[in-house]
């Protein structure tokens, strides 16, 4: 049976029912103590991703020191939970693609903690597992980025300190510019390493010590960018953008900062209004019932006659977060819509598609693949189904799972009628994937997935067998 059912075939055969029966028997026989070991790896990975996402969503910065410490502790606990789950995946999968992704995510957590050596260790584990795979390429790039930027920081920090000392004792334009440029590069290197605290600190120092330098306005503007578009901390970013106009009123960055502040204020105000309106339309009695453990349907959660308005509000909220490039909160809004308004079939299906699309735009291809799969399973008749099949195939191609991509593009061709935007491209890709230029019996997509050559008959996927 083709693994790409996409929810089209709703028939359940006797063999499938037997599998379900045996699975149920296995779980009941094992009991609660062994339940953890039979949780599907995919589900365990999703649980780990969920804990990671929750940690990422926490804004540590707060004017209240006690609250800031609470946020930091909560974030640390969530990262620990995610790492523990990823480690379990590695222990069970050992050499598979789940292990590669788990290593990759653990490396991310170590990068958040500025433990570059540990991050590199996990990148090296990935390369050892599959030297030619998608995650290996990402790991090699990540390792190179860490080493390069650590070298930049070391060299440029020393350069800044040396030339700043020379400038302080005997100022010249040359020593001024060398010291300023070096400090700016230190900030950029920390930003590339995702150590945003140190990036901000070095940009602030650059502005303070070299306010007359041509890059000073850029440094101040970049502080605002980090807060707004990376940390999604609008409270922290606001004064950073205001400072651009105050300190560098005639700069191009000042006009940009003014526009961004105006647009962001309008968007955040609208989001706040839409959220308040959603709360107003919640069925308070149903909410109280839910708190007591009673089960209520999504339709019962809202005041009668206002579900359509709530749908529109969630859609507008998600769209506004997209404008601010805050994809995590945009995804969260769509996920809430799909869950709490699942009875609004068209809107819920649209939300499921948007979730996949946002993950894909953000380069999180495996999450996108799963999101599109959720659409196939929960809304197989959606108007977005065909495009989702195509985009899922694109995601598989992006992570170098060419066999799955091939099946996906073929599925898209089989369910698409007429001249659609992606049909010709899908046909062209499938034709290319079905080539066997060296006539060794292995098609192009099989060679690609194995990392072998379709131009050399002696290089093929069966070499190691």
Give the arrangement of secondary structure elements.
Elements: H1 14-30, H2 35-38, H3 41-57, H4 65-93, H5 97-112, H6 116-129, H7 134-169, H8 173-192, H9 196-209, H10 216-230, H11 234-247, H12 252-280, H13 284-291, H14 307-323, H15 327-340, H16 345-361, H17 365-378, H18 385-398, H19 402-415, H20 423-433, H21 444-450
Describe the structure.
The structure is a single chain. The longest helix has 36 residues, at 134-169. This protein is an all-alpha fold. It has helices at residues 14-30, 35-38, 41-57, 65-93, 97-112, 116-129, 134-169, 173-192, 196-209, 216-230, 234-247, 252-280, 284-291, 307-323, 327-340, 345-361, 365-378, 385-398, 402-415, 423-433, 444-450. Helix 14 runs antiparallel to helix 15. Helix content is 73%, strand content 0%. The model is unreliable at 1-35 (pLDDT under 50).
Structural class: mainly alpha
Percent of sequence in beta strands: under 5%
Query: Which value, in Å, is the CA radius of gyration?
Result: 26 Å
Major sheet: none
What is the chain-wise order of helices and strands? HHHHHHHHHHHHHHHHHHHHH
Count of distinct strands: 0
Globally, the shape reads: globular
Classify the helix fraction into a percent range.
Answer: over 70%
Q: How many angstroms separate the termini?
A: 25 Å
What would the average pLDDT be, to the nearest integer? 89
Tally of helical segments: 21
Looking at how many chains there are and whether they match, the oligomeric state comes to single chain
Poorly predicted segments: 1-35
Summarize the structure.
The protein is mostly helical.
